[in-house]
Structures are given as structure tokens and as C-alpha cells.
Amino acid sequence: MKILVGYKRVVDYNVRIQVKSDGSGVVTDGVKLSANPFDDIALEEALRLREKGVAEEVIVVGIGPADLTAHLRNGLAMGANRAIHVVTTDAVQPLTAARVFLKLIEKEQPGLFIVGKQAIDDDANQTGQMLAALWDRPQATFAGKIDVSIESGTTGKVTVTREVDAGLEVIEAELPAVITTDLRLNEPRFIKLPDIMKAKSKPIDSIEFASLGVEAHDHLKTTHYAAPAKRSKGVMVKDAAELVAALKQKGLL
Amino acid sequence: MSKILVIAEHLDGKLNLSTARAVSAAVAVKPEAIDVLVLGDNVDAIATDAAKIEGVSRVLTVARAENAHPLAAVLAPQIAKAADGYSHVFAPSTTFGKDVAPRVAALLGVAQVSDVMSVESSHSFKRPIYAGNAIITVEANADHAVVATIRTASWPAASSSSNSAPIEAMTLDVTLPTHTRFVELKQGSSDRPDLQSAGKVVSGGRGVGSKENFEIIYKFADKIGAAVGASRAAVDAGYVPNEMQVGQTGKIIAPELYIAIGISGAIQHLTGIKDAGTIVAINKDGEAPIFEIADLGLVGDLFKLIPELEQIVN
Predict the structure, then answer these.
(1) pLDDT score of A218 more than 80
(2) Are B230 and B240 in contact (CB under 8 A)?
(3) Between chains, do A125 and B114 touch, taking CB under 8 Å as contact?
(4) What span, in angstroms and rounded, lies between the C-alpha atoms of B5 and B81?
């Protein structure tokens, strides 16, 4: 079977983002961009499933402007067989992304769609679930462990251990299905130089967003950006006694 | 006028406190009605608890064997059907709400507002992005229902003493999928207060050094009646189970007192505790970023300081 991997490019997780003083957005010019960490985990898991013989082909899919190809090449260098680039300069919200991915699913007929549980820029945590709903297939969110057993083609089942507030929940779902990855699923591999060279000859299909016939109407309008309220500067205490006294004074102990 | 449907979260026949927090956010919209929807197999005790929450107009229950476990694929079509006639559908922004609400939104063909921190008007909300480093105001389309998850750390639990809302059993004519099945839930058993609702939380990080050393954190927490949390580093190192993780990708909490021990304070961890009343940091590295947001900081060796603290608290 094929596995499709949602592969978003975001502001690097180490960057401390700055809000523009006029409240119109955050500063992203010249800021380092990287793969969304959860999507790297999604790709790593797909590659491992291919190495186990569960999948034959891993395809990274991304939505973004022309220069997103450089990001998709990283996915190819990590080991994906090919990439699909849906080209648009507009920012895409989760519901639109899910509608785009559904179009790609209809064309590629994968057994699994794996994507990160959330993107660290909009922190929405929606796309995988929305895609599963539109596709009318199972969802296994916040996956910490994945076991796939294939019967034939894209039929089979997946057993997923999910990281939920109460502990670890195990569910079983029939394929095809959508899985969203949590942090502890795996440790993504590093890209080696020869793989970067090899990735240059791997195919990237470009599809114009407009040609997909997806309703691009974004329902949420962001009207203002603000920096979070700052906590006032605290004080350093010199020893345990002083700390306990301070907490008792605040009525906390 | 607004009518809000709040999706109840529950486990083992008990209502989760996150439901009362979501009701608080619903009250802030000033709607004409707030109904709580309880989906389960045995719903009576849960519905009785939900009916006591102040501000709740009605409790609607759907009792079906298929609802025994909170599978999003099974619950979402029922919620989408029940949402008919409501202007808003709210769920807590817990792993339960995050799993099911976007599936409901997509079935309704609407966008979702995740992690609502404040209600500006019936269709305008504030929410955090970039791990809480920016707060945006978003406006939802007023032509159709608003689906939102409520950031529990931003809202107090609505009081549950005075109300006695009517409880109505519902039958929803929805065909449910059988492609997703519950297998088991492995819970870390703990007699300590629940991390997400505790007034005091003591957290340990990489500096604690080992699973065995974490005992010192548990002991101190028990002494002051606190829940125990952990940084991602402590979870990844295997000191504690994953459900104890506090941060952007773990639990977001707002206790009155948060004591971070041996935690350096990565952006992703700070996201989880920014709304705590008082933050105390104990770390041997005086330059650790945790001290930038701590109200009270103490530099030193935790293995020396924690026993001292225990002694003085006595």
C-alpha cells in the first residue's frame, strides 16, 4: 500500500516569535523555517512501515508557495519516494488543508494518511481529525505506538496506542485510516549528504490549488495579534526557609 | 441569540471537571441557553452531576452501548446531529475534546476555534498560537455554527451547588461506523490530586536524574498536598509516565502554586504553566530560563533543598 504523509513547513521550534507592534501579525521575514516536528515523526513512522514491508511507497504532501519545494526535498532526502506539492500563496487553514488532502487521497488511494498531531505555528490540532471525517474513515490521534497488519492491498487493520490525558488508550481501526503522531512515537532519522543528492532526482508533482476544485473559503478571520501578558519579574530567595516564609505569606502553604 | 451545546467529558461514570470549565466559557457568550450533551452507555450519574453546574439549562443524554468509550468516529456524527439548532458547540480542550471536536466541525463543514482563552463577543475569541508566544483574536463566520474547544487553564470551573437543570434522554437517528474499536485504557494509578484540577503542582525535570530519584518529588508533593507533573525531558528519560507531562504538547495547567524542580524551562514547557498563580523554580543553574518567569527562585541542589523544605514545612 501507499502511505501519504502531511508535511508542513513552520517557523523553527527554537525561534522565539515576535509579534509586530501594530498587531497585524508575527515577524516571519528572515526567520528560520523547518519541518513541523510532529510531521517529521509522521514521515519517520511511514518510512519504518515501508522498511517493515507494510508499505511500498511513501509520499510527502505539502501545501504552500513555490519555494516549498526545498522543504519537500528534505522529506525526499529523509527517504520519501516522491512528493506532491499543492501550490498556493494563500495561508491555508485546517479545514481547507483537509479538503485538499482528501482530493489527493481520492487520486492516490493510500492505506494510511499520517500527519503530526498539531503544527507548532497555529497549534490548531485539527487537520487529521477533519480529514478523517471528510474521508469517512477511522482516526487514531496522538499515536505513541502503531502496529499495522495488512490482509491485502489497502485492507487490514491498525492498532494504535494513543497518548490521552487519562493514560494510554489502545484502539483498533480498519484501514484505510488517518493517524496523527505524538512526540514519543519515534526519533526521526537525520538526513545524510548522499541522500540530499539522491533526493534531487526524486519526482515532485506540482498541482495548482485552483485546479483541485477545493472551496478555499477560510471561515476564521484573524483580526488582531498581541504579545502574551508578561509575568512581573520575580524575586530570588536565598534559602529554603526564606522560600517557605514567602509562600506562607501568600497563603500558599 | 446564541444557544450553546457543551459536550460533556467523563470517565468511569464520573463527570470530568473540564466540562464545568467549558460551561464557564459558554456563560461568557451570554447565550439564551446552555445545554450539556452526555454521550455514554450509563449516563445517569454523569447527567445528574452535569445538571448541578450553574448556568446549565438542560442536560441531554444519549445512552447507547456504542458510546461506552469515547471514540471520535462514533461520537462525532451524533454530536453533529444533536448540534442542529445550536449556534455554538463547545468541548474542553483536553485530549477528548481535541480528538472529537474537529471531526464534528468537519461534518458540519465549519472551521474550528481551538483553545479559546477568552470570549470577546459571540463570534470573536482569543486563542494562543506559537506555543503561547502570540495571542490572536479570531472571528468566526456568524452564518453558521461555531465549533470551539475551550482552553481549560483559562477558565474556572462553573460552580456546581445551586442548579438542578432538567435531564432529557434523546434518541438520535444516526448510523454509527464500526470501523473503529476500543481495546483498552492503561491508566497510571495514583491517589494524588488530579494534575489538571489541582491547586498545587510540583513538577520534576531532567535534573531529578532518575526514576528512583523522582520519589523525592512525590514525597514532597504528598507533604504539601500537591499533584505531580513533569517536563518532557523527565518523561522521555522514562522517569515518569507520559500523562504527567506538562507543556505545549502535554497538559496545560493553571494551579495556584507551581513548583518546578530541576526543570530548565524550555519554551514548550513554559507554555503549559504560564497561567499558574505563583511559579516557584528550584534549579542549580542560576541562568536557567525558568527563572525568567518564576515569581520565586531558589538556586541550589534539589537533593539538599527538598529535604530542607520538607523539614521547614513541618
Answers:
(1) no
(2) yes
(3) yes
(4) 12
